Amino acid sequence: MNDISADHPKLDPDNALRSNLTKHLFRRISAHNSILIGGGVLGAIVLMALFAPLLAPHDPFSQDLSRRLLPPFWMEDNNPKHILGTDNLGRDYLSRLIYGAQISLMIGVCTAIISGIIGSALGITAGYFGGRIDAVITFIITTRLSMPIVLVALAVVALVGGSLHAVILVLGFLLWDRYAVVMRSATQQARNMDYVSAARAIGCPTWRVVLSEIFPNVVNNLIVIATFEVAHAILLEASLSFLGLGVQPPDPSWGLMIAEGKEFLLFDPWVITIPGIALSILVLAVNMLGDGIRDVSAPENRN
C-alpha cells in the first residue's frame, strides 16, 4: 500500500488560520484610507527626519545676518539657494524644518513610550487585581485627571528649566492617564475570559497570566492610544516652546520656529505659516493613522 501522507503532507490548521487572518487583516488595512494616507504621510516625515543630514541643503545652525528673512520661492526677491527662505538670523528655513522633524518625532515617540509604560502598568494592575488595589490606583488616576496638563507642565518646566530632555520627561510623567483608564477597562474584560481562567486553573503564576494571556489581548488598545498621545505630546511641546519654556535655541523645534517668528507675523507671515503647516500635517497624519488602527482593530470590524 502506498503511503498517501508522504505525497500529500498534512496541513497545519493553526498555520492555515494564522495565514487567513493575516491576509484578512492586510486586506482591511489596504482598503482603509485613513491608514494609507496617514501612514504614508507619517512615513515620509519619518524618512525625512532619519535622512536629515542628506536632505538638508544647509547647516541648520549656520547664521548669516546679511541674508536674514529672505522670502520663500513663491515670493519676490527670493534666493534660489534658500527654497523656503531664511529666518531672522539668516538660517536656512528648509534645513531647520527638516531637522525640526527629528525633534518633534523624538518628543512624541519618547513621551508615548514613557507615559505608556506608566499608564499600562497602573491600568493592568488595577484591572487584574481589583479590590483595594483598584481603588488606590483609581484615586491616583482621578487625582491626575484633576490637574490641568498645560499649567502643570509650565510650572514644572519653569522650575527645572526648559530643554529637550526636560520636556520629554515632564510630558511623559503627565500623559499616562489615558493609558491607565483604557487599559484598566480592557483588563477587567479580559480577566474574565475562559483562557485566563484556564491559565489560572493549571497553576500559572500571576506574572505569566498577565504577560502571556492578558497583555497580548489588550495590546491593540495600547497601540491606538499611543498614536493619539504622540500627536498630543507634539502639540504640547509646540505650546511650551511657543511660550519659551520648551525646547531651547538653537535647536530647530517646529514650535520654537513658530515662537521665533511671531514678531514678524505682520510683515513676514510665512515665517510662522511654514512650520505651522508642517506641524499640522504631522499631527493630522498621526491622528489619521491612529483613527484607522482603531477602526481596523475594533472587535466589530474583525470579521
Characterization of this structure:
The protein is mainly α. It has a single domain, classed as MetI-like (MetI-like fold, Orthogonal Bundle), CATH 1.10.3720.10. Helix content is 70%, strand content 0%. It has 13 helices and no strands. It has helices spanning 4-7, 13-30, 33-50, 52-55, 93-129, 131-145, 149-160, 164-172, 177-190, 194-201, 206-242, 254-261, 270-297. Helix 5 (93-129) packs parallel to helix 9 (177-190), helix 9 packs antiparallel against helix 11 and helix 11 packs antiparallel against helix 13 (270-297). It is elongated. The model is unreliable at 1-9 (pLDDT under 50).
Radius of gyration: 25 Å
Q: What's the number of structural domains? A: 1
Main sheet summary: none
Coarse structural class: mainly alpha
Helical content class: 55-70%
- The CATH H-level homologous superfamily: MetI-like
Question: Average pLDDT across residues?
Answer: 83
Unreliable stretches (pLDDT < 50, length at least 5) are 1-9
Query: Beta fraction of the residues?
Result: under 5%
Order of helices and strands: HHHHHHHHHHHHH
Return the CATH architecture: Orthogonal Bundle
CATH domain topology: MetI-like fold
Tell me the span between the first and last alpha carbons.
44 Å
The counted number of beta strands is 0
The first-level CATH class name: Mainly Alpha
Shape descriptor: elongated
**How many helical elements?**
13
Provide the fold topology.
Layout: H1 4-7, H2 13-30, H3 33-50, H4 52-55, H5 93-129, H6 131-145, H7 149-160, H8 164-172, H9 177-190, H10 194-201, H11 206-242, H12 254-261, H13 270-297
